Amino acid sequence: MSAREEILARLRAATRDVTTQQGARGELAVTAASAESPARTLELFVHNVADYRARVERCSPGDVATSIAAALVRGGAHRVVVPDGLDASWIAPLRDSGIRLVPDRADDGRPLSSAELDEVDAVVTAARVGIATTGTIVLDHDTDQGRRVLSLVPDQHVCVIRADRVVHDVPDAVSLLDPLRPLTWISGPSATSDIELDRVEGVHGPRILDVIVIEP
């Protein structure tokens, strides 16, 4: 038996008891006719995001700023970088919490360097879409999300997403995304278990991920 044949034989053996039909799109089938589907999709999203060890909070539109401030205080953040296009009402009250807001521009107008970003504690962004079945948030780096490096260098990422931007699965999300834009897919805090299967967080990105879901 060749190596290829051995690998295929192992795959067939491992999937022998799989009953899911090809093309099925996971649990909780969502249809436009089902009035409860959006709510169930949101519940699944919250469950799976939390399962990745992210901290999830649901709030009303009027409580977004309070929820952001609480997440930053809980994470011990003092200096927070914010994208230029982030909703001003979300972050204006942060100054009263003793948190210093850092724009993504140095005094001479250039974007902050990686070394300068390493000196801030957290970043606050919006998100383009959330995926329920995978617990994933996707950034397309519009002005309310900022450059990709903003969501990779600081130790804490507070990501705000509206409930109506949460979809059931990856195909639903892809249909809403522009493939020509840079996309960052985030499923929980950055973590790796490459070395002796010991989980280490914060290796390739933020160690702390807070997801704030705005519900109507």
Describe the structure.
Residues about 30-35 have low confidence and may be disordered. This protein has one domain (about 35-215): 3-Layer(aba) Sandwich (Rossmann fold), CATH 3.40.50.10420. It has helices spanning about 5-15, 35-50, 65-75, 90, 115, 170-175; strands spanning about 55-60, 80, 100-105, 120-125, 130, 135-140, 155-160, 165, 185, 190, 200, 210-215. With about 220 residues, the chain is α/β, with parallel strands linked by helices. About 25% of the residues lie in helices and about 20% in strands. The protein is globular. It contains six helices and twelve strands. The relative contact order is 0.19. This is Lactate utilization protein C.
How are the SSEs ordered, and which strands pair?
Layout: H1 3-14, H2 37-51, E1 55-59, H3 64-74, E2 79-82, H4 88-91, E3 100-103, H5 114-117, E4 122-126, E5 129-131, E6 136-139, E7 156-162, E8 166-167, H6 170-176, E9 184-186, E10 191-192, E11 200-201, E12 208-214
Parallel strand pairs: 1-12, 2-3, 2-4, 4-7, 5-8, 7-12
Antiparallel strand pairs: 5-6, 6-9, 10-11
